[in-house]
């Protein structure tokens, strides 16, 4: 016997209003409608890591060029991290 609030047989249950879904706290999480494609994610991360290039040769810490390189590398790693976080948020919603 079904009640008026029961979903029809075979219907997938919908989340209850007010219950947060995994990853819903992330900025732009509502835009994730397409499941994560592992090959696309891997290629994006590989492209970003390729931008890192070779590690710079160790030198004096006060070298301005070294500081700029560290900042550039940190930004690239942050972008790669965002790609992975976005992919994980998509996977959490499946």
Tell me what you see in this structure.
The protein is mainly α. It contains two helices and no strands. The protein has helices at about 40-50, 65-90. α1 (about 40-50) runs antiparallel to α2 (about 65-90). The longest helix is centred in the C-terminal third of the chain and has 29 residues, at about 65-90. The chain is elongated, with a radius of gyration of 22 Å.
**Share in helix:** 40-55%
* Cα separation of the termini: 30 Å
The average pLDDT value, as a whole number, equals: 74
What is the overall silhouette? elongated
Low-confidence stretches: none
Secondary-structure class: mainly alpha
* Largest sheet report: none
Strand content: under 5%
Number of strands: 0
Number of helices: 2
* Radius of gyration based on Cα positions: 22 Å
Q: Topology as H/E string?
A: HH
What is the strand and helix layout of this fold?
Layout: H1 38-52, H2 64-92
Helix pairs in contact: 1-2
Question: What would you say about this model in short?
Answer:
The chain contains 2 helices and no strands.
Main attributes?
mainly alpha; 0% strand; elongated
């Amino acid at each position: 016997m079904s009640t008026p609030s029961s979903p029809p047989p075979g219907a997938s249950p919908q989340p209850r209003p007010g219950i947060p879904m995994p990853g819903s706290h992330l900025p732009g999480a509502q835009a994730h409608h397409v499941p994560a494609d592992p090959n696309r994610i891997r290629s994006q991360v590989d492209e970003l890591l390729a931008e890192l290039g070779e590690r710079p040769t160790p030198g004096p810490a006060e070298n301005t060029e070294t500081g700029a390189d560290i900042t550039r590398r940190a930004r690239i790693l942050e972008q790669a991290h965002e790609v992975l976080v976005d992919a994980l948020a998509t996977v959490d919603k499946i």
